[in-house]
Amino acid sequence: MDFPPEGIVISDGGLATELESRRYELGGGLWSARLLADDPAAIRSVHAAYFAAGARIATTASYQASIDGFVARGLERAEAVELLRRSVRLAVEARDALPDPAGRWVAASVGPYGAALADGSEYRGRYGLSAGRLADWHRPRLEVLADAGADVIALETVPDLVEAEALVRLVGETGVRAWLSYTILGGRTRAGQPLAEAFALAAAPGIVAIGVNCCDPAEVPESIAIARSVTDRPVIVYPNSGERWEGRWTGPVGFTAATARSWIDAGARIVGGCCRVGPDLIRGLIGSKAERI
């Protein structure tokens, strides 16, 4: 199916934080990817809940998964490849179980190198690796996911330009369609680079949307304006709830239907949520202009 379609599209919310709200323990280096082996039905159930809430996109449980990461935890390479493929299959199964699965898409999540390190460095970037070395690291996972039946690749929570360059290069090599989404702070990438420079990388074959995720909702309006000023690609935004992680989630929720409606008014085409945005918040968006999809 073509992606993205015309009009406004509502995406899903946070997979891992929704699993945590259901009392699943996600500690360790694999985060939600651990359940690909231990409890795949739990992941399928969350995908189904987001579809039932009105989401048109399910994002797979492969964000923190990598072949190296699975092998380091005792799996054979063939088993690691199968778990990556399973991440797509679970989302496809949830979609295909719908009475009318048409107009729903599966996005295969490709998180940053730092996510696989499980040390928080996906929020800093600047790993000390060249774009070539990062491309070599990402290539096996992206190739497996590209062949697993997803409609689009979600290059998400990217913290800096070097990693973005590596990922854009791989998209061109593999011929897949992908969106490119940065995690930002203070109107810049997490590594401190200008957003205009980061978004300009979207002008490359295969990049079908550009935007931000895993950030404060207050950061979204400026990022939309910058993205629209430097590229004609559709803009995708899916921030966190607005709460902050300080050993536990604290602070007010800043993600509401009204704020999402303002992002659509500002020019965002694909709107969803990230950490702590669950099915109820996604359901609340289906009273906004998103009804036109």
Automatic annotation (TrEMBL):
SUPFAM superfamilies linked: Homocysteine S-methyltransferase
Requisite cofactors: Zn(2+)
Residues where Zn(2+) binds: C214, C274, C275
GO MF term set: S-adenosylmethionine-homocysteine S-methyltransferase activity; zinc ion binding
EC number: 2.1.1.10
GO biological process: methionine biosynthetic process; methylation; S-methylmethionine cycle
Record-annotated Hcy-binding domain positions: 1-289
Gene3D superfamilies (UniProt xref): Homocysteine-binding-like domain
Keywords: Metal-binding, Methyltransferase, Transferase, Zinc
Name of protein: Homocysteine S-methyltransferase
Organism (species): Microlunatus parietis
